[in-house]
Protein 1
Amino acid sequence: MFTSDEWTLNKLSKEPKGKEAAKVVLMPSFWNSVVYILKVMAPLVKVLRLVDGEKKPAMGYIYEAMDKAKETIIMFFNSNESKYKDVFAIIDKRWNCQLHKPLHAAAHFLNPEFFYDNTDLEFDFEVTNGLFECI
Ligand SMILES: *[C@@H]1O[C@H](CO)[C@@H](O)[C@H](O)[C@H]1NC(C)=O
């Protein structure tokens, strides 16, 4: 849009705010930030769709979905922790209080789909601690 004739011939392109907007959008760092945001947000939006969706009761699947989302984010950043640790601090803070992690850990443990699929589930202490906390 900002390189089109339509824009350059428009009077807004000569105004300070128009010039500033064009400058920002044409900076490589702007697009690097967009890519960064997409790498973080795409997996999280998937979890939100599950939580908000009507397809199936989400309770027993949220813990697994959050685990998968975090794994996907790690993969998107090639396991370079310095690139995602600040974001994970924010996610973990929300996940631990607002999203009631222990409740979802208990639901994960009690979901037959995961319980019978993973024989080591009883040794996943984050999951079993969540279960005990709820009990
Ligand atoms: C990890 O990311 C940081 C910050 O972007 C960068 O400086 C560093 O070289 C990366 N490390 C590896 C092993 O790629």
Protein 2
Amino acid sequence: MAQTMSLLLILLSLSLTVSNGAHNVIDFGAKPDGVSDNKKAFLDAWAKVCSSTQPASIYVPPGRFLVSQADFMGPCKQNSVEIYIDGTIVAPSGYTSTTKWILFQYVDGFSIFGGTLDGQGHSMWNCKTSGSNCLEASTSLTIAQSKDVKIQGLTSVNSEGFHMSIYQSSGVTVQNIQISAPSNSPNTDGIHVQLSDHVIIQGSNIKTGDDCISLGAGSRNVLITDIYCGPGHGISIGSLGSIAHEQGVQNVTVSSVVFHDTTNGVRIKTWGKHYQGYVQFIMFQNIVMYNVSNPIIIDQRYCPHNNNCPNQNSGVKISNVIYSNIRGYSDTEVAMKFDCSPSNPCQGISLQDIKLTYQNQQAKSFCNNASGFNSGTITPPSCLGS
Ligand SMILES: *[C@@H]1O[C@H](CO)[C@@H](O)[C@H](O)[C@H]1NC(C)=O
Ligand SMILES: *[C@@H]1O[C@H](CO)[C@@H](O)[C@H](O)[C@H]1NC(C)=O
Ligand SMILES: *[C@@H]1O[C@H](CO)[C@@H](O)[C@H](O)[C@H]1NC(C)=O
């Protein structure tokens, strides 16, 4: 009898997974009322798919699902967990005391399709802009220590801090993402990558109050392509060199990007501190700039409020950076700026077919400690030494 019963249960659970496909969070008790905390239901659904020995998926139907801080932990028993989201996942309003809202950690092989994350960041932004002592803002979606991850068609709005962070992960593809937060929302970076390898960010639309995409230390083999950025602070490598023993950044391609009303276009930024590091084999190509304050910029003197770094030279070596086919207009006179480290001059900077104007006139370029090559037509005229 007991045996028949357990066989029946096994058959029943098999048929549930097979016939319904995905595990609906509603079946785990989730309520799309925008008020009840659905953390437990989501984590229970996760536990179910993560412990399944066959590919398994979660379905989040339309509606507003409030979910407080939640860690979706691996490792899972197989490497094909999929999450299909039609609804909106909402953070608790009022800022929280965690640095990560939704975290996926130690997961090898998972995908998220669709969905909206609403970070409800307003009270955090108000706190920060009022100059009070605020708790640390949380990142809406963090992928950490994971492998073989795909995020497709996700929308992220109004994060408290970063919208998305990819940390110590490998093989992460982010496609067709929409990110939006007001241009004056502090530190709401779009996508931040750090200590990660083989990352592709493709076909995304990012409007936010800080960097659209930022690549921190240890970003390697990164392809960023078909991006619209603006408003925002542009696409940035850095800031690097604020601490000792940082990993370098290498093999990054940024291609087919439109910047609109951004404070920077393509930027490489290091602290004016002596800590060693490097940025090498970087390619910026096929880029259009509409009203960008610093379309092309390398700044190795970053030292906000002159704290702990005045008069130090950056120890980060920048080399082999190609800028190719970059056009449009600058919002400031200096459209091209290479302000490199006097002790580690930039080397192998290559300019090919650049046309940047300022108020329909010729813009200017500025170089300090930078050398390289020029080819094709370059306006403003290049100031690189050879
Ligand atoms: C550079 O990065 C791209 C994108 O991840 C990758 O396809 C390519 O193999 C890398 N090149 C080298 C030399 O590692
Ligand atoms: C250019 O962009 C800045 C923001 O970086 C904005 O304040 C300004 O209005 C824009 N100018 C034009 C002409 O659109
Ligand atoms: C760096 O630039 C400064 C100012 O242009 C110049 O005086 C100095 O010689 C340069 N240093 C090197 C190592 O090229």
Protein 3
Amino acid sequence: MKGGLITFILILAFASPHSCVGLNPKTKDTFNVMDYGAVGDGKSDDSQAISKAWNDACGAVTPGTATLVFPQGKTFYLKPMDFQGPCKSKYINIQIQGNILAPTKAAWGSKDRYIGFLYINGLSIYGGGAINGQGSSWWKECTGSCQRPTLMCIHNCHDVTVNGLRNIDSPRNHMSIYLCNGVRISDLHIQAPGESPGTDGINIALSANVNIESSSIASGDDCISMINGTSFVNISGIACGPGHGISIGSLGSSTSSSDTVREVHVRNCSFTGTENGVRIKTFQDRVGYVGKVTFEELTMIAPHNPIIIDQHYFSKVKETGAVAVNVSDITFRGIHGTCADEKAIELNCNKKFGCQNLILDNINLTSSVPGKKTIASCFNAHGVATSVIPSNPCLQK
Ligand SMILES: *[C@@H]1O[C@H](CO)[C@@H](O)[C@H](O)[C@H]1NC(C)=O
Ligand SMILES: *[C@@H]1O[C@H](CO)[C@@H](O)[C@H](O)[C@H]1NC(C)=O
Ligand SMILES: *[C@@H]1O[C@H](CO)[C@@H](O)[C@H](O)[C@H]1NC(C)=O
Ligand SMILES: *[C@@H]1O[C@H](CO)[C@@H](O)[C@H](O)[C@H]1NC(C)=O
Ligand SMILES: *[C@@H]1O[C@H](CO)[C@@H](O)[C@H](O)[C@H]1NC(C)=O
């Protein structure tokens, strides 16, 4: 009886596969750029093929995930391009196993970013491949008012994962996260020379719920910077250096509209030969708020300024104290290692109400120069210090 039923089903299945109206034909969900005519020799222009493959992937009606594939062992020469949503399927994968190579400055055109991922929800980028911005063709020639492009922009996207990617030699910033909610970044490796100008690692603005972990960032500017409208960010397991360290700011671009960064947690990161370790920088006589920030379990390997709050960033005139950016509830805990300069801790707060509720706990920063001492320096910094070297920290109640 049972055997008879199975035989019956098998006959049904094999008898008329094409006339079986009850089942959908398998929907295509993988879009390999090679199938669209990409060459992948690092010289032929693969832009059209990649654009076509993306349009099909983004337009695919699949019940699951549409995947755009850049296969391994190939280098795709791609002109500046936006991968723009919204897409039809709920999830979009971009599997970058091969390399993507940008044009040099001479062949660039006018775009202000290299690759834009825009208005895509459920986006996942992975594969371990590299995006190379050929920044050295810009760094020397393009200075002053010359605008250099950002390598990779993730703008207006929700629920984004980047896991396994290398970003190399951006003309300017490597990755910009803007107007996003829900971003998880891991195993990202950013690499540009320490002398390359303005090549930030990751910039975050107007975004919330961002988690960055287990990554390395070597660049010529900030490792990670967070500016206006950034909240609920966790950063852990990042090796920074060379570069300028992890920064909140600059904040306070206006005297009327408030800049805000809050709920930022930086843990288990190292800073090797960087300009700064962890820094908060705000302009004087501006409005804004930086609060509920923790920097903990950090290893400093001879940065110049391991711990720094600078509320007089780029200020040439005297502070009036009419308004100020409110910096409060900032914790520095478990920070160890060495410092290349004498000033290991600098807390240079605003004149109006100072920084409030700073906590310095379990800090030991010695000089990287044998026999030299380190010092702490404060202006209007309020809070509590326990077990801190350099000792005699200058916090007020
Ligand atoms: C950040 O870490 C906290 C504490 O571990 C956790 O509750 C929160 O969900 C994390 N946020 C993100 C965006 O990963
Ligand atoms: C700290 O980060 C390193 C590098 O990513 C990682 O290997 C290690 O497991 C992390 N440790 C903790 C306690 O999270
Ligand atoms: C900061 O972002 C907020 C939105 O969160 C906006 O209202 C404000 O204008 C921005 N500040 C500046 C100075 O642009
Ligand atoms: C700074 O902001 C915190 C949190 O909102 C608030 O409690 C505190 O009163 C503010 N400080 C000043 C001087 O406005
Ligand atoms: C601080 O670090 C230095 C250098 O590693 C070490 O010699 C010293 O014992 C440490 N001090 C404390 C109180 O842990």
